[in-house]
Each structure stands twice: as structure tokens, then as C-alpha cells.
Amino acid sequence: YECTLTLAIDGPAASGKSVVGREVARRLGIRFLDTGAMYRAITLASIQQGVAADDACKLSSLAACADMRLVTHSNGDRLLLNGDDITPRLRLAEVDASVSAVSAVSGVRTALVAQQRAIASDGSIVMCGRDIGTVVLPDASVKVFLTASAEVRAARRAAEMQQRQETFDTRQVLAALQRRDKIDRERDDSPLRPAADALVICSDHLTIEEVVCQILAEVSQC
Ligand code: CDP
Ligand code: CDP
């Protein structure tokens, strides 16, 4: 007898969801899905096709028709959109700027949530995003809501950009992150908020390893 384990990890931008989620999944030997990449993919397609970020109708049909394939690789996962490997373009500044507006469109969410549930139905998984514990997988075995102060999160994002030798302005990184969080928290459909039964972890003073251990401890009790 083997039970299916589903872990929902939600939280604001750069709170550590993907780094922590990927490591937890690796240690448990189960799959990992970063749902943010799916919203970014639709946003990228909308930019490429000249669809405005407030055109709910066209955005919804874009999401409904998108053929998204996740390919797991040892050197990083790839996301194929209609056969194209768009992974390197998901973090472009243009995508960052409009992803929250695109993600607020209900028709976009309906299409992507259906795909996320279909993926989860195949077996154990760690899924991270904004609405996994509240909407996508309300019956998840373990729900975690990761937080950290906006300043700490912006500093961590800036450090990543520095490592990739990109030019950046720390104040702009902070402002962009806060702007995205505000839209994500205030939207009507599936706003960013902790599920009532989520374990809330603030990582301001925690290392990635400490966060991973807290989550694994929670998993071992379920
Ligand atoms: O990595 P980061 O936290 O900066 O962002 P992300 O997880 O890639 O998500 C990008 C955007 O997609 C978020 O700001 C949300 O607007 C949207 N999103 C969402 O609405 N629901 C999800 N389950 C995941 C992401
Ligand atoms: O997926 P999300 O946008 O929530 O964040 P992430 O990309 O997983 O993490 C953002 C950055 O913060 C990464 O560079 C992590 O290595 C770093 N981080 C950290 O330094 N300490 C933590 N406790 C968690 C994340």
C-alpha cells in the first residue's frame, strides 16, 4: 500500500517556493510543478501575439488552446509551448510586468487549473503557486504558505540577477515585486492568501535547508 502525497506550497513572489519545493520533491522522490511558469507561458504568448493584458476574451482562448508540455531534465525542467522551448524567456522583464494582470483573468485560471489538477491526478507531487492550497488542491496532504519580508525577498531576487550578471536596481526590483504581490492579493478570482489549514513559515531568518526540514517534518506527521 502506497499513499499519494500532495504538497501545496503557496506564497508571494520570491518567497522561496520553487527552490524549497523542488528540494522537498527531490528528497521525497516525487514530482514537482511550478505553476507560475504556466501563467508566465500564457503571458509570453500574449505578448508575442499582441494580445492586450486586459483582453479577457482573447487571453482565455489563448490559455484554453495552449499546448503546454513539461519536460523534466536533470539540468533543469523545460516548458514547451506549442512545441517551442520557451524556458529561457519566462523570466523576461516584459513577462514580469504583465503576468499578474493576465493571471487575474478568470478564463485563464480555469484553463490552467484544469491542467494542474490533471497533472496532480497522476500521483504524488509538490505543486507551488498562489492558489494551490486554496483552490487547485484543497485536499492536499500538506499545505505550506511561505513568506518573508518584501525587503528580504527583493534582496534575494537581486542576488540572483547579480549572479546572472544582469543589470538591476534594487529599489526597482522591490517595487516590481510589491506591485505584483498587490495585484495577486487583491484580485477577485483566487487571490493570494494562506489556506486556513496551511503551515505558515516566514523565512526571513531561515536558510533553505531549515525551511525544507520544517516541511519534511510536517510531511512525516501526516
Ligand atoms: O517566481 P515568482 O514568485 O516571482 O513568480 P511565479 O511563481 O513565477 O508567478 C508569476 C505570477 O503568476 C504571479 O505573480 C501570479 O500573478 C501568477 N500565478 C498565479 O496567479 N497563480 C499561481 N498558482 C501561480 C502564479
Ligand atoms: O519561487 P519563488 O519565486 O517563491 O522563490 P525562489 O525562486 O524559490 O527563491 C528566490 C530566491 O531566494 C532564490 O535565489 C533562493 O535561493 C533564495 N532563498 C534563500 O536565499 N533563502 C530561503 N530561505 C529561501 C529562498
What's the SSE blueprint?
Blueprint: E1 6-10, H1 17-28, E2 31-34, H2 36-48, H3 56-65, E3 68-71, E4 78-81, E5 84-85, H4 93-103, H5 106-120, E6 125-129, H6 132-136, E7 142-147, H7 150-163, H8 170-186, E8 199-202, H9 208-220
Parallel strand pairs: 1-6, 1-7, 2-6, 7-8
Antiparallel strand pairs: 3-4, 4-5
Please outline what is shown here:
With 222 residues, the protein is α/β, with parallel strands linked by helices.
Detailed description of the structure:
The protein has 222 residues and is of the alpha/beta class. It folds into two domains: 1-30 and 124-222, Rossmann fold, CATH 3.40.50; 36-122, 3-Layer(aba) Sandwich (Rossmann fold), CATH 3.40.50.300. It is built from nine helices and eight strands. The protein has helices spanning 17-28, 36-48, 56-65, 93-103, 106-120, 132-136, 150-163, 170-186, 208-220; strands spanning 6-10, 31-34, 68-71, 78-81, 84-85, 125-129, 142-147, 199-202. The longest helix has 17 residues, at 170-186. It starts with 5 loop residues before the first strand and ends with a helix. The mean pLDDT is 95. One cytidine-5'-diphosphate is lined by residues 13-14, 35-36, 39-40, 99-100, 103, 129-131, 180, 184.
